[in-house]
Write a structure and sequence with these properties.
Layout: H1 10-27, H2 31-46, H3 56-59, H4 67-79, H5 83-91, H6 94-98, H7 107-117, H8 122-130, H9 142-156, E1 162-163, H10 164-175, E2 183-185, H11 187-190, E3 195-196, E4 199-203, H12 207-216, E5 220-224, E6 228-233, E7 236-242, H13 248-256, H14 259-271, E8 274-277, E9 280-283, E10 289-290, H15 295-301, H16 317-323, E11 337-341, H17 352-361, E12 366-369, H18 378-392, E13 398-406, H19 417-420, E14 425-429, H20 438-450, E15 456-457, H21 475-485, E16 488-492, H22 502-510, E17 515-518, H23 530-539, H24 553-560
Parallel strand pairs: 4-7, 11-12, 12-13, 13-14, 14-15, 15-16, 16-17
Antiparallel strand pairs: 1-3, 2-4, 5-6, 6-7, 8-9, 9-10
Length: about 550
């Protein structure tokens, strides 16, 4: 099944080449061949030209790509894969490849575990840890075994909930079949939750016609009744609840709010003599039904301000709505810049010019370039500053010279103070030592905040949704110290992080701590992830005044000083 050439991106090609490198390592092939595929993958992903449009001879002019790999790239463009990869993949059980998802198990470690201990599944690995067989292997030891044990525990705790982009993709694949204006997304997705279990939709219109279109499109329907159709698409379950247009208000309200929110709203309705239901508000005495075409009508009937969907979690929003005292929540339109971006100077896949172009396109006043201290020497950083000054002369959006500086295991920072002093903005982040106990790890972050040059603590819990749980850190202490030192805490807008969690955003806001929304963009398309960070900020009750990058460029620099 060939993939049309125009649909194949550089990232698609790079992922296939990188996968080949991992399989070669698992198979125990020499490092030279493995390294060749790793280098080719990096080169392809960084290339500004689409490789799909290059012939084999042109591909060989790219450093690190020889005749053999050039031919394989052409195979990937034509078919989505290449013969040697498929042949190698057939010799390695899929359950073994899945073990790469266990923290502490890399390809070469996996080769040893497979060949020396016969480990092929996570169950095999778990039994080997319990029997202390891993520590007996040369070059492993008790510490490595314990790390793998933690990795297995994390692997088993992985959630089957969807990230926001996954949910977006599922919705795009299904809602294209709905007539315009005849559906609304509800549930935790509409509330802006960081991850989504099942997707809830409220639909009006012809139920039977929609079911026919779904079946004709090959969508699997797993259950259907007169009111609800459950279907499975893109690895996720969707529940579509049908209602009449004149009753959509309470139907959407009941399909969106959390259980606690709906219970409190039901109490408000009951105090006014009504029972809240999906079809409307039923008079407790006569049983007559008040119906509503919109949620706003329901709230107004109950004497309340309309509660924004992101706040419907039973955290005091009902009381504020009754007093008509809601804060003016931050909106994506309030954002005037991005505070966290990486370029090809470290591990990004976009040039400084690309970042400035992206900022111009989004109408930003500034984007802060925050390449990793571990990958950019002080000497290279100084050269980057010169390049930033040159690029700023021809762009409306101004690049600021920043850095994402490592908070090392001993609490020291990745750059000395003399280097930090020359930066426009400094993010300090934990990228190692995740296994330290809570007190040690927390004190690392507190120490970083004591440095006058540190402006923001990046992705404060280190979580990767569905892949890595938060590390042990006392966010109560961190938030209190941030308030004392005037340090901002990041709302990392990457949909794979969304770190901080909304409840901690709310706590930080309450204590007067500034929040910094940054996309952590490594590619141009990731700048659009700011929308996820702002939704997270809204869930934490943030106003524009709470978010650092709603400030103008001059206001940001004044805050920093």
């Amino acid at each position: 099944m060939g993939t049309p050439e125009r649909q194949v991106t550089n990232r698609d090609v790079a992922e296939r080449l990188a996968f080949m490198a991992r399989l070669l390592e698992i198979a125990g092939v020499d490092r030279y061949r493995t390294g060749a595929y790793e280098r080719a993958a990096r080169q392809v992903e960084r290339l500004s030209l689409p490789v799909a449009g290059l012939d084999e001879e042109e591909l060989t002019h790219i450093p690190g790509i020889g005749v053999r790999i050039a031919g394989q790239i052409r195979e990937i463009v034509a078919t989505g894969s290449f013969g040697e990869l498929e042949d190698l993949q057939a010799t390695i059980p899929g359950s073994i490849v899945e073990l790469l998802g266990v923290a502490g198990v890399g390809p070469r470690t996996l080769h040893t575990l497979w060949k020396r201990l016969g480990i092929q599944t996570v169950e095999d690995l778990e039994q080997a840890v319990k029997g202390h067989r891993i520590r007996a292997l040369r070059g492993f030891g008790a510490k490595k075994e314990e790390a793998i044990k933690r990795g297995i525990r994390q692997f088993r705790q992985r959630s089957d909930r969807m990230t926001r982009p996954h949910a977006d993709a599922v919705l795009d694949s299904v809602t294209a079949l709905f007539p315009d204006g005849q559906y609304a997304v509800a549930g935790s997705y509409r509330r802006g939750a960081a991850t989504v279990g099942r997707i809830e939709l409220v639909a009006t219109g012809d139920r039977n016609a929609l079911v026919h279109r779904l079946r004709a499109a090959g969508v699997r329907i797993v259950n259907e009744s007169a009111e609800v159709v459950s279907l499975y698409a893109g690895g996720a379950q969707l529940n579509v609840r049908f209602t009449e247009p004149g009753r959509c208000g309470t139907a959407l309200l009941c399909a969106t709010g959390s259980r606690g929110f709906l219970a409190r709203l039901g109490e408000v309705a009951l105090a006014r003599g009504y029972r809240l239901g999906r079809d409307g508000l039923a008079d407790c005495t006569s049983g007559s039904l008040q119906t509503f075409g919109s949620e706003e009508e329901v709230f107004a009937f109950l004497g309340m301000a309309a509660v924004p969907p992101e706040l419907r979690e039973d955290r005091g929003e009902i009381e504020l709505a009754l007093r008509h005292a809601f804060p003016d929540l931050v909106d994506l339109r309030d954002v005037r810049g991005d505070l966290h971006a990486h370029t090809t100077w470290s591990d990004g896949h976009q040039s400084l010019e690309d970042v400035a172009d992206a900022g111009d396109a989004r109408g930003y006043e500034y984007v802060v370039v925050t390449d990793h201290s571990s990958r950019v020497s002080p000497e290279a950083l100084a050269k980057q500053h010169v390049e930033i000054e040159r690029i700023n002369r021809r762009h409306t959006c101004q690049l600021l010279a920043g850095s994402e500086v490592d908070i090392k295991s001993d609490g020291n920072l990745g750059y000395p103070n003399r280097v930090l002093a020359d930066l426009d903005l400094v993010i300090a982040s934990v990228h190692s030592g995740f296994g330290q106990d809570q007190d040690v790890l927390t004190r690392r972050v507190l120490t970083a905040m004591d440095n006058d040059h540190v402006d923001i603590i990046g992705h404060p819990t280190g979580r990767l949704l569905g892949r890595r749980p938060p590390y042990a850190i006392d966010l109560v202490r961190v938030t209190a110290h941030a308030a004392e030192t005037g340090t901002a805490l990041e709302i990392n807008a990457s949909p794979h992080r969304l770190d901080l969690e909304d409840i901690y955003i709310w706590r930080a806001k309450k204590e007067g701590v500034k929040l910094a929304a940054g996309t952590d963009a490594h590619r141009i398309e990731e700048f659009s992830n700011m929308r996820y960070g702002i939704v997270q900020a809204r869930r934490g009750w943030c106003t524009p005044d709470d978010i650092l990058n709603t400030l103008s460029l001059s206001g940001l620099l004044e805050w920093r000083s």
